[in-house]
Amino acid sequence: MSYEMETGNVSDEVAELCGRVEDFVRNVVAGYEHDPRRNSHGPSEELSLALKDLARKADVLTPHIREDGSHLTHRETAAVLIRSGLSPLGPLACNTAAPDEGNMYLLGKVGSPEIQSHFLEPMVRGEKRSAFFMTEPAGDGGAGSDPSMMQTTCRPDGNHWVINGRKTYITGADGAGVGIVMAKSDDGACMFLVDLPDPAIRIERVLDTIDSSMPGGHSEVVIDNLRVPATQMLGESGEGFRYAQIRLAPARLTHCMRWLGACIRANEIAADYANRRNAFGKPLVDHEGVGFMLAENLIDLKQAELMVYWCADVLDTGALGTAESSMAKVAVSEALMRVADRCVQVMGGQGVTADTIVEQVFREIRAFRIYDGPTEVHKWSLAKKIKRDWRKANEG
């Protein structure tokens, strides 16, 4: 192995769990990476359920949530999720994938006992997938990186709420059993839990995108007079943005964890290729142009790993960690893009084929630089914080 993963100073119990997850992903899940039940819109439901069944038998299904429903710390979660990401199929198999992992975290934090029983528990058991309905089409002037632009509306009607609007880039909507829908009332943003499928939520098309690791792909959706019982609103009307932050700050970081694992594996494949492949009388790794790229990969991987654990520690203090998760999202996604690109370059023609996961990891990381907020939005947010902090220090 060319890169030594940290255990993150976790307990012996969690270290043992990390070992089991890594063994399962490397020795079981990786064998399904060329399974024909995968297409451009992600793994099929049949493959998804088969992999989760294997994880259940190996006792590594939903490993970041304990039997009593409590979550591992963010540092412990990092150690586990990095290892689940060693295959693009690993998070799906272990039930640590987006958007389910983030949705489970949110419902575990703020869901009522009834919501947790009806919606959360089947997700934890790996029986249902979920989708988070927030982003809206740009042509409609809807919410993207700026959720305050939300156009989807909700209005009370007796003991129900009626929701209307359009959503786009909704990951996993096709085939999901649980939906979290964001809409705007007179009080502000709201979140609702819904059972899927529902005839009032219509998938217009599944988009053809650069990435292909998430079941159901990414959909454009119309919501037409969806009626939701008032008991299925998270919290009170107008609290949706606050709950979104509870979900999004850790979710940005768990994306970093999973894709760090994928790039560690891609780098292993590239390093193995460079040591086996000869050109001009010696192994590729002995050519500085190649060896230096692999050396740079080790540097970027280690910096990304340190950033992940640093941000996890901040979140474990109980801080919201919005600025820290933005820094981690930018630093890690950009570093992993460099790693994935170098892996392709080291492997030459082989790197752009589907013979290994390297080309898929490259595509997935390119998409990762966009979702959960593109680099530029996070930099802009951090710049605004710099200005606020300066004013507080100099004008207060």
From TrEMBL:
<dbReference type="GO" id="GO:0033539">
    <property type="term" value="P:fatty acid beta-oxidation using acyl-CoA dehydrogenase"/>
</dbReference>
<keyword id="KW-0274">FAD</keyword>
<dbReference type="InterPro" id="IPR050741">
    <property type="entry name" value="Acyl-CoA_dehydrogenase"/>
</dbReference>
<keyword id="KW-0285">Flavoprotein</keyword>
<dbReference type="GO" id="GO:0050660">
    <property type="term" value="F:flavin adenine dinucleotide binding"/>
</dbReference>
<keyword id="KW-0560">Oxidoreductase</keyword>
<dbReference type="GO" id="GO:0005737">
    <property type="term" value="C:cytoplasm"/>
</dbReference>
<dbReference type="Pfam" id="PF00441">
    <property type="entry name" value="Acyl-CoA_dh_1"/>
</dbReference>
<dbReference type="InterPro" id="IPR009100">
    <property type="entry name" value="AcylCoA_DH/oxidase_NM_dom_sf"/>
</dbReference>
<dbReference type="InterPro" id="IPR037069">
    <property type="entry name" value="AcylCoA_DH/ox_N_sf"/>
</dbReference>
<dbReference type="Pfam" id="PF02770">
    <property type="entry name" value="Acyl-CoA_dh_M"/>
</dbReference>
<feature type="domain" description="Acyl-CoA dehydrogenase/oxidase C-terminal">
    <location>
        <begin position="238"/>
        <end position="385"/>
    </location>
</feature>
<comment type="similarity">
    <text>Belongs to the acyl-CoA dehydrogenase family.</text>
</comment>
<dbReference type="GO" id="GO:0003995">
    <property type="term" value="F:acyl-CoA dehydrogenase activity"/>
</dbReference>
<protein>
    <submittedName>
        <fullName>Acyl-CoA dehydrogenase</fullName>
    </submittedName>
</protein>
<feature type="domain" description="Acyl-CoA oxidase/dehydrogenase middle">
    <location>
        <begin position="131"/>
        <end position="210"/>
    </location>
</feature>
<dbReference type="InterPro" id="IPR046373">
    <property type="entry name" value="Acyl-CoA_Oxase/DH_mid-dom_sf"/>
</dbReference>
<dbReference type="InterPro" id="IPR009075">
    <property type="entry name" value="AcylCo_DH/oxidase_C"/>
</dbReference>
<dbReference type="InterPro" id="IPR036250">
    <property type="entry name" value="AcylCo_DH-like_C"/>
</dbReference>
<dbReference type="InterPro" id="IPR006091">
    <property type="entry name" value="Acyl-CoA_Oxase/DH_mid-dom"/>
</dbReference>
